[in-house]
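Hi everyone, sorry if this is the wrong subforum. Our group has a chain we'd like a structural model of before ordering constructs, and none of us has done structure prediction before. Sequence below.
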Amino acid sequence: MLLDKIIKIIKSNIEAARQAARDYERPFRKFEEFEEKQQQKEQQQERQQYEQQRGQQQRQQSSNSTAQDKEAAYYAALELSKGADYAQIKAAYKRLMKQYHPDRFHGQPEKQKAAQQVSQKLNEAYEYFSKKFNL
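Answer:
Right subforum, don't worry. Here is the predicted structure as tokens:
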């Protein structure tokens, strides 16, 4: 009987100690959970920043390549190799406009329409290079 009471007291003390330990650890667990959530938020923000920077870089690269593609198309429209100077561009423009001017195809509607499209491209290319060379 006495032994049973002692065992009962010891068991209740052990259970009380376990509960005290759980109560003691609870704030630490909450703090750890809070820290973990903060780390997750920071990682998510870093990922978003990285994705935004990556998107900006891709847009810049695509706009740079688009400008280079346009310039290459303008050189091709003027039948020039890339890097031609302004005098060559002007001479090519005049030569091609004489050749493809829509007024030369009066009475031939299909050819006149094609000549209008070509002359538009030539004008666009010449305007681009005039701006590029600040003239």
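For your construct planning: The domain at 2-132 is CATH 1.10.287.110 (Helix Hairpins). The chain is about 85% helix and 0% strand.
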